[in-house]
Amino acid sequence: MNLGRSKKRSFLTVLSLGLCGVILIKSGILLAVGLTRRQLCKTRIFEGEALVIGSILIAFLIGIPVGYLAANTFRITGAVEQYIFPFKEYSIFLVVLIVIDILLEFILNRSMKKQSLIEQMRAME
């Protein structure tokens, strides 16, 4: 079982590093073709917000019906009496998702301002 966890962690690490590399390459290319740092910051913020809104919609449109169907299935077996929407958990999910997005955008934009275009391009190698 530990070997499975190790493979999952390795996969997530490789995936995360790959995504960071793609973001750096995209940022470097956009800056190289003439996008200003301010425009790049706005683009990153917009992309982050779109990702958060998409995640919220998917969780809402898929998660709620699946939870309701699962509760009804367990109700037939007698394990659950009634479906109750998890307002508290869903609210926590929304807040955590939004806070993570804001923090990541702040950190990315701040680190981008500290590096020149050449330094960003060298970091990609």
Brief sketch in words of this structure:
The chain has 125 residues and is mostly helical. Helices cover 86% and strands 0% of the residues. α2 (37-77) runs antiparallel to α3.
What general outline do the C-alpha atoms trace?
elongated
| Ends distance | 35 Å
Percentage of β-strand residues: under 5%
Order of helices and strands: HHHH
Q: Would you identify the regions where 5 or more consecutive residues have pLDDT less than 50?
A: none
The overall pLDDT, averaged over residues, is: 77
- Give the helix/strand class: mainly alpha
Number of helices: 4
Overall strand count: 0
* C-alpha-based Rg, rounded: 20 Å
Helical content, roughly? Answer: over 70%
- Largest sheet descriptor: none
What does this molecule look like?
There is one protein chain. With 125 residues, this protein is an all-alpha fold. It is 86% helix and 0% strand. The protein contains four helices and no strands. It has helices at 2-32, 37-77, 87-114, 117-124. Helix 2 (37-77) runs antiparallel to helix 3. The longest helix is centred in the middle third of the chain and has 41 residues, at 37-77. The two termini are 35 Å apart. The relative contact order is 0.11. The mean pLDDT is 77.
